[in-house]
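Following up on my earlier thread - several people asked me to post the actual chain instead of describing it. Fair enough. Here it is, all 277 residues.
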Amino acid sequence: MLGKLIAYEFRGVWKPALIILVIMAVAGVAGSMSLATVDALTDNYSYSSSDVTTDLSVVLTLFTLFAGFIVWAGVVGLFIVTVVRFYRTMFTDEGYLTLTLPVSTAALVMAKYLVGFVIMAAGTALAIILYSMMLAPLTSDYGLSASTTILAMLSGSFGFFDDQAPAAVAAGAVNAIVGIGYQLGLAYLALTMGAWLAKRHKVAAAVGIYLGISWLLSLMFSVANVLALVGIGDYGWEMVTMMTGAVSVAQMVCYAVAAAACVALSVFLVRRKVDLS
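Reply from S.P.:
Thanks for posting it. Predicted structure:
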């Protein structure tokens, strides 16, 4: 039954998700071509000294930044699509029909969560590829790999001291996956709690819950990282690297546990507490 629910969820979101992914791909390719043109113009002295070339380089650079924003906005758009579908099919008039299906609440929530996770993972992977294409002309000048640099940046403290270290790259990939699961699970829980606690303005309540919980967790680990960095003068770089790495590992573990807890609590609240009447 879970497989049928997953297939049904995919049928409900594949069209808007595909449109967003195509827009991201077009923007990313256009942005990479634009920045490659800028790099070629600036490398050629006869062209780079021209005022027209300078103006064209500025325009192309601004276009590249806009293309990069479109790629980022596409990931946000995929997140909104999956979250809106969860709310519409669970807590609006359509929710009455959803919750009367002869399947368990856990199967309903898990099907939506797994589909949302796959869509978000596909969007994130595409964004990393596109950003790597756009940044390749810049990073290649310094002998760096754009993809490994981006993944290291996603690793948090692992990439703070060495953004080409294999551990930082691996941690970035794991952190991206864990982050998707955490953000999606927290959004589902926030919408569920909003539907349970608020009589009116359920979505506004959900947004407040989502921002509050995510802000508190982020603040906690930001403070921990700052405290670790403060110890550079006392413990040296190697010890601080270990401390900040430990903070990053703890953050990933916390987010993974939080993702599972959010989904489990969402199932419980939908089954026991949420009253659509």
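The first helix runs from residue 2 to 43. That should answer part of your original question.
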